[in-house]
Specification:
CATH superfamily of the largest domain: Vaccinia Virus protein VP39
Structural class: alpha/beta
Order of helices and strands: HHHHEEHEHEHEEHHEHEE
Radius of gyration: 21 Å
Low-confidence stretches: none
Number of helices: 10
Number of strands: 9
CATH class of the largest domain: Alpha Beta
CATH topology of the largest domain: Rossmann fold
CATH architecture of the largest domain: 3-Layer(aba) Sandwich
Strand order of the largest sheet: 5-4-3-6-7-9-8
Mean pLDDT: 96
Helix content: 25-40%
């Protein structure tokens, strides 16, 4: 292929895929497609019906800039400013963790439990999302459970700004209350309780920092990723505080790292008089991903 050939959609995608392969992208073709669709302001699937079209010089210039940043390990979600989660689209910036498919299992567990233990007619389910970040769990809970109210908590004011934008975008502002809070400390009144607590807390140990992917380690907020030497420095006080915040018969659904499963189960078992770990949901790779604990 010579340089005088036009830079069609197909040629751009093929060249970029090869280029990103050489820069340690785990999904070079997908990255190329998402970035080009963003530059062309179209759906990714539309690329497949326009392989022979030639993007404008300004579109190619923008694409070249974004591909260069991706080669420098900037995550695609931050470059395009959004990420899909549980069939919904969410704004993301470097102030929030990028939503991941594994976290969808928290939503699935919540919806399954509500079906299994439906609320009394007319009752509003009270749900807390601790460490809401971009608000994906809070928005999904409100969107798919119209008879629910979600209190979304985060220690980061900047993260709450992004969550507020996502809450408004998905039309659930009346169902979601955003609170700047270190775990439950910012809730007033102090005795407020919930039917469900959801959380995707930071759970990576500092001793694991060097094995975390470079694009994650260098770009995503460390406060949302790392929690002390073993990864338990947030989960431990969260379990303790949740004990006083869940109604009898209520549930705590928490995403975990697979290698922390036994340690987290032990935290609940130390409070056997108040907690019963009913099950651990596994992700598609068969790894323990969501602890499901019931308040006795």
């Amino acid at each position: 292929m010579t340089d005088d050939q036009p830079w069609t959609t197909s040629r751009l995608l093929n060249w970029t895929t090869d280029y990103l392969k050489g820069h340690d992208s785990e999904s070079p073709r997908l990255d190329a497609e998402v970035l080009l669709a963003h530059c062309l302001n179209c759906e990714r699937i539309a690329l497949y019906t326009s392989f022979d079209s030639v993007p404008t010089p300004s579109q190619r210039a923008l694409y070249r800039d974004l591909v260069g940043k991706r080669a420098q390990q900037v995550p695609v979600a931050y470059l395009v400013g959004h990420r899909e989660f549980y069939s919904l689209d969410f704004h993301v910036t470097k102030d929030v963790l990028i939503p991941r498919p594994e976290t969808e299992f928290v939503v699935i567990s919540l919806l399954d439990l509500v079906k299994e233990y439906p609320p009394q007619p007319g009752k509003i389910l009270q749900i807390a999302d601790v460490g809401t970040g971009s608000g994906v769990l809070a928005v999904c809970a409100a969107k798919y459970l119209p008879r629910a109210h979600v209190t979304a908590l985060d220690i980061s004011a900047k993260a709450l700004q992004i969550a507020r934008k996502n809450v408004a975008q998905h039309g659930v502002s009346e169902q979601v209350t955003l609170v700047e809070s270190d775990l439950f400390e910012g809730i007033d009144p102090a005795g407020q309780t919930f039917d469900f607590i959801l959380s995707n807390p930071p759970y990576i140990g500092l001793q694991e920092m060097e094995v975390v992917a470079q694009d994650v380690r260098e770009n995503e907020p460390h406060v949302a990723l790392f929690a002390g030497p073993q990864g338990l420095d947030v989960i431990t006080p969260l379990v303790s505080q949740a004990t006083e915040r869940v109604v009898s018969g209520g549930w705590f659904l928490m995403e975990i790292s697979p290698h922390l499963e036994s340690s987290v189960v032990d935290l609940f078992n130390q409070r056997k008089e108040t907690w019963s770990v009913e099950s651990t949901t596994k992700d598609l790779a068969g790894h323990a991903r969501v602890i499901r604990a019931r308040r006795i």
